[in-house]
Specification:
single chain, alpha/beta, Helix Hairpins, Chitinase A, domain 3, 2 domains, five-stranded mixed β-sheet, two-stranded parallel ribbon, 3 helices, about 40% helix, DNA binding, Tscrpt_elong_fac_GreB, transcription, translation elongation factor activity
């Protein structure tokens, strides 16, 4: 049984844009190349044909994965969060560790997470530890290097003004 996957409206739009790019642009171009290569005769030694078929399978596989992600996506707009005093999906949190090192993270869907940009997935260890936290709470996160404590310094949500 599949579970629903929370995702921001921007993350869902990115999934849809990638799907459209593959389906409407890249796949037809590869199909055209494969059709042209197939007309050139012996397919067993035809590099354009062999590579094109491999590329087509890869595109179809990615389209299937994107379709599945979109089917189970639960689009949640963080700007509509009624309780802004706690950490929920879409929150941007300023954290401080014991050495007073600050880190800002935003909790997003797992499909749109990018740790280097400060976007962590909803099911990541840090996000799970922070769920429901308030300013001043100290949460312990178990990392491969051992447990680490983070204090919640600030919580914010987008305003929703477009």
């Amino acid at each position: 049984m599949e579970r629903t996957n929370p995702i921001t409206p921007a993350g869902f739009a990115a999934l849809r844009a990638r799907y459209q790019q593959l389906f409407a642009v890249e796949r037809p171009a590869v199909v055209e190349t494969v059709s042209w290569a197939a007309g050139n005769g012996d397919r067993s030694e035809n590099g354009d044909y062999i590579y094109g078929k491999q590329k087509l399978r890869a595109i179809d596989r990615e389209l299937g994965q994107l379709s599945k992600k979109m089917k189970f996506a639960n689009v949640l707009d963080p700007a509509k969060q009624p309780d802004r005093s706690r950490v929920f999906f879409g929150a941007t949190i300023l954290l401080a560790d014991i050495d007073d090192t600050h880190r800002t993270v935003t909790i997003v869907g797992d499909d749109e997470a990018e740790a280097s940009d400060g976007r962590i997935g909803w099911n990541s260890p840090l996000a799970r530890a922070l769920r429901g936290a308030k300013v001043g709470d100290v949460k312990t996160v178990t990392l491969p290097s051992g447990p680490k404590e983070w204090e919640v310094m600030e919580i914010s949500y987008p305003d929703g003004v477009e």
